[in-house]
Amino acid sequence: MWKRQNKTRFTFNAEKVFLAATQPLATAYGYFETSPGGLSPKEVERRQAYYGKNEIEHEKRKNPVTMFIRAFINPFIGILTTLIVISYVLDVWMAAPDEKDWTSILIIATMILLSAIIRFWQDWKASLSSEALQKMVINTCSARRSEQGITEIPIEELVPGDIVMLAAGDMVPADMRILETKDLFVSQASLTGESEPIEKRPDVHGKKYAKGSVVELDNICYMGSNVISGSATAIVFQTGNNTYLGTIARSIVGHRAATAFDKGIARVSMLLIRFMLIMVPFVFLVNGITKGDWLDAFIFAVTVAVGLTPEMLPMIVTANLSKGAVLMSKKKVIVKDLNAIQNFGAMNILCTDKTGTLTCDQIVLEKYINADGSDDDRKRILRHAYFNSFFQTGLKNLMDKAILAHVRDLDLESMKDRYHKVDEIPFDFTRRRMSVVIEENSGKRQIVTKGAVEEMLEICSHTEVRGSACPFTPELRKKAEAICERMNHQGLRVLAVAHKSFLSKENNFSVEDENNMVLIGFLAFLDPPKPSAANAIKQLQNYGVEVKVLSGDNDAVVRTIARQVGICGKTLTGPELEALEGEALYQAVQETSVFSKVTPLQKTQIITLLQDRQHTVGFLGDGINDAAALRQSDIGISVDSAVDIAKESADIILLEKDLMVLRNGVIEGRRTFGNIVKYIKMTASSNFGNMFSVMVASAFLPFLPMMPIHLLVQNLLYDISQTTIPFDRMDAEYLRKPRKWDASGLSRFMIWIGPISSIFDITTYLLMWHIFKCQSAEMQALFQSGWFIEGLLSQTLIVHMIRTRKVPFFQSRASWPVMAMTFSVMVIGIMIPFTPFGASIGLVALPWSYFPWLAATLLTYCILTQAVKNWYVKRFSSWL
Fold first, then answer.
1. Which of these, 256, 279, 351, 679, could form a disulfide with 316 (CB 3.0-4.6 Å)?
2. 220 in Cβ contact with 214 (< 8 Å)
3. Rounded Cα gap, residues 149 and 144, in angstroms
4. Quick one: which H or E segment has residue 510?
5. Which pLDDT value is given to residue 3?
6. How many whole angstroms separate alpha carbon 622 and alpha carbon 870?
């Protein structure tokens, strides 16, 4: 199978998958060119060199050369390139030898180069940041290598022929042929959409497969699926792009579903473009008719289109998201998807599990007692619990680890030496228990089961009282329940332990064998509340985020822990939730703060019901049973210590499982989102105002209010002034509330705020026309210089006016990069008409008497804008 006659890489092929599935187990190692001990390091290196990393298409790093070339492909540069061609034809090709002028061409070419470099630099930094953040979250798998034995290796280092061990909670890291299984159930929902897990087994007999139905093969596991329960050993036969998932990824690489944020950005761009499509023909016709020079009118109209094009929008958005992700990483929050940041800031409900989030995640075995409540002096309960935790091959949870650690501390690990494992019945989230079948060296065989109290009591027909088994009467059941409830109210998590001895059955044990068992005792675990949890929850609530607890644990335990950390609202259990429907269900979910004994399906249901009521819901989880809820939520949050499927399903990864870390991430998400909204509103209102100014000037002036090259230089300087917006701060009041993307108010904002600048543009026309007597063609350059400076300075000042609802400079100051950049651009704009560069593009030095008028104009502009802003905030209760 691994012959490489044509020297071509192995690609996904259904025929080869069927061949892999139908190979007899006896010859499987030889067929896949490996051995039971795994591959040697030298062979691994050779196969990695041939097959490459175990990564699918979308994970590859972007090529910087390709990114640089793409930086030149946008409407803005297309329009500028058109102007270069026109300038070359008019100023060079058609001009007399002594009148050839390259000035406009050089200036426009410089603008193109600067624009492309800025765009490339921001995109490249964002790409590097995203890649660095992704590397901070590493998924591993257990593989057997010939000189290392079973070891944890990064998933991307797998090669065909590797022997991999799978357990509950693992992501299937490649396409694999199964060799051994124990009650292995795999979810293929990410590949097929089927919600029910499928049992996988190594057997190749007894089933005929239709060619083409590769996902139905019972002994093949595909990359991207995840193990729900059980365990398996398998051989990797396809990796990376050659996997079934890889073929899907290649067909959609570069494409993803548009989020509400993406759609909102697109609506902003289209709104500005619609205004441009209305205005540009109007400017062209008016200038052509009134001035008589249709070529100049066309060039001016095209230049106006450049000024109205939101060419910096993609760069500003990318820069904001990238910088936000880097800042969040410094606060121990890793962003897997940059577009998830806006949902993070919009989140107003956080649903979280209890364990490790509200509690210390350092569970210790506090006590172990007999079924009648007496102390386990003989450590018999501890011994049975230890056998159950030690011999199981599935995912060991925190309580298993606590049992193993306790036995290790007591130096009692030798207890296992007298027993060997016969079989096991893996844990699942419906039964909430797991069993192992063990046999003593003397031949005594027994099944030992450990699990949630309620589910355990249902399978017990007897209980032990003072060391003797007796029927489990209703009275004894009530006594057992009372013992557990008393410990639950002390904040202890309780598990029950039962057994059944002298089994006649020898193998192939199943869930049906968990019956008529004898309850022998209880285990009580302590996982105290985190010292920081109460303060973190209070802080989240202060920032408008309601915290709801969704736990599968016992009601009394969950309520006790919730109360200790300050969550004292209404409580509801899973069975109570199941009994509700219709409006009563919606109302209960909305009003309830603490949910206990909920199933994984109910977690997803709760999130969906909250979303139906227009809430932006975050979910924090780290277990196998959290994967569906993580996918359903608006913002899935997990931790780097979570199981693979949880990390894969999440949008955000916390490097520390602490709500305070989450609170810091929420604030950074809102700051990032706020800076994006700033730019959008600045651009929209400024461009809308410029539209009116140019239309008025075109209708009433006998010459062009500004030459095309003036508009281009002004637009470039204005764009540069806004490149520091990602480094700006947000007012504390803005960060206090969840912020959801809403483009519906943008048109209203444009209509009210945009024309303010037009008022002062028109007063500048009147100033230059009547005070400075710019009424003839000879004075055209002075007129254009006056509007050039006023237009640039008013546009740049709008950055400070719009960035806050407060009085700028006094009540709220921008960050120093924004202050430095905007005032530098204003100084450069004032100086240009006095420089040789200004003279080369047709600007002239302004008389000093102009500047007091300019200062008065800008001051009045700021005062009027602030007055309209105050009215707008009072009238519409919003600003950014």
1. 679
2. yes
3. 5
4. none
5. 38
6. 46
Tell me if 842 sits within 8 A of 780, measured CB to CB. Answer: no
Q: How far is CA 124 from CA 68, 77, 243, 818, in A?
A: 9, 19, 29, 22
Position 680 scores a pLDDT of 82
**Helix H or strand E encompassing 639:** strand 635-639
Distance CA 329, CA 311 (A): 29
DSSP code of 216?
Answer: G
The SS3 of residue 499 is strand
Give just the sign of the alpha carbon dihedral 596, 598, 603, 609.
negative
Q: Which residue has the tokens 């924004």?
A: 818
755 and 689 Cβ atoms separated by less than 8 Å? yes
What pLDDT score does 253 carry? 44
- Distance, in Å, from the CA atom of 71 to the CA atom of 116, rounded to the nearest integer, reads 5
Spatial neighbors of 850 by CB under 8 A, at least 6 apart, are 772, 786
φ/ψ (deg, to 5) at 259: -85, 175
Q: What is the pLDDT of residue 644?
A: 66
Instruction: Determine how many CB atoms are found less than 10 A away from the CB of residue 824.
Output: 14
3-state SS, one letter per residue, for 742-775: CCCCHHHHHHHHHHHHHHHHHHHHHHHHHHCCCC
CA 703 – CA 291 distance, rounded (Å): 7
719 given a catalytic annotation: no
Mean pLDDT per block of 10 residues along the chain (880 residues) reads 38 72 85 89 90 69 74 69 78 78 76 74 65 64 84 89 86 89 77 69 60 72 82 89 71 47 67 74 82 76 68 70 78 76 84 76 85 87 92 76 89 87 81 89 90 92 89 92 89 91 83 91 87 85 90 82 85 88 90 88 90 89 76 84 72 80 84 85 81 80 80 81 85 87 76 88 91 84 92 89 90 91 93 90 91 94 93 88
Concatenated DSSP letters of 69-93: HHTT-SHHHHHHHHHHHHHHIIIII
Q: What is the pLDDT of residue 208?
A: 47
Complete domains list, the chain, with CATH: 1-255 (2.70.150.10), 272-326+667-876 (1.20.1110.10), 333-359+530-655 (3.40.50.1000), 364-526 (3.40.1110.10)
> What integer pLDDT is reported at residue 789 of this predicted model?
93
Task: Specify whether the CB–CB gap between 571 and 553 falls below 8 A.
Answer: no
Of residues 302, 304, 104, 272, the one with CA closest to residue 715: 304
State the number of CA atoms in the 13 A half-sphere of 412 facing the CB: 17
The residues facing 142 across adjacent strands are 152, 165
Catalytic residue chosen out of the listed positions 353, 428, 626, 728: 353
The string of DSSP codes covering 725-743 is: GGG----HHHHTS------
